[in-house]
Amino acid sequence: LGIGTLPVLAVVSARIEADGAIWTLEGAGEGTPVVVGQAARTDGWAVVDFTDPNLTAIVAELRLLRATENHDTVEVGTLRLPGRGVHALVCEGP
């Protein structure tokens, strides 16, 4: 998941790999295309729903929770793929 630096959550790239399938933001190349249906972020959490390009069905629901103490940051969450399953996440990076 790549996000921009705007004061709102701007998803600029995404690649989802699960159970042998790949989804990417529309126009990003390989994989089944998806678009951001909705996204929001505050200091402690973020949610992103990816839909098919026609906005008719949710393909993936990303839910993240962030905690920071001193110089340490941890982000964990879930990735739900309706009709396919749910996955626990531990996110790396700043």
Structural features:
single chain, 94 residues, mainly beta, seven-stranded mixed beta sheet, two-stranded antiparallel ribbon, 9 strands, globular
Structure description:
- The protein is an all-beta fold and 94 residues long.
- It is 0% helix and 64% strand.
- It has strands at 2-3, 11-13, 15-18, 21-25, 32-41, 45-51, 58-69, 72-81, 85-91.
- Strands 3-4-5-6-7-8-9 form a seven-stranded mixed sheet, with no helix packed on it. The chain has a two-stranded antiparallel ribbon with strand order 1-2.
- The model has no long low-confidence stretch (mean pLDDT 86).
Structure in a nutshell:
The protein is built from no helices and nine strands. The protein has 94 residues and is mainly beta.
Helix content: under 10%
- The low-pLDDT segments are none
- What's the order of the H and E elements? EEEEEEEEE
How large, in whole angstroms, is the Cα Rg?
Answer: 13 Å
Oligomer: single chain
Figure out the total of helices: 0
**What overall geometry do the principal axes of the alpha carbons give?**
globular
Helix/sheet category: mainly beta
How would you state the average pLDDT, rounded?
86
Strand order, biggest sheet?
A: 3-4-5-6-7-8-9
The beta-strand count equals: 9
Beta percentage is: over 45%
Instruction: Summarize the main sheet.
Output: 7 strands, mixed
Distance between the termini: 12 Å
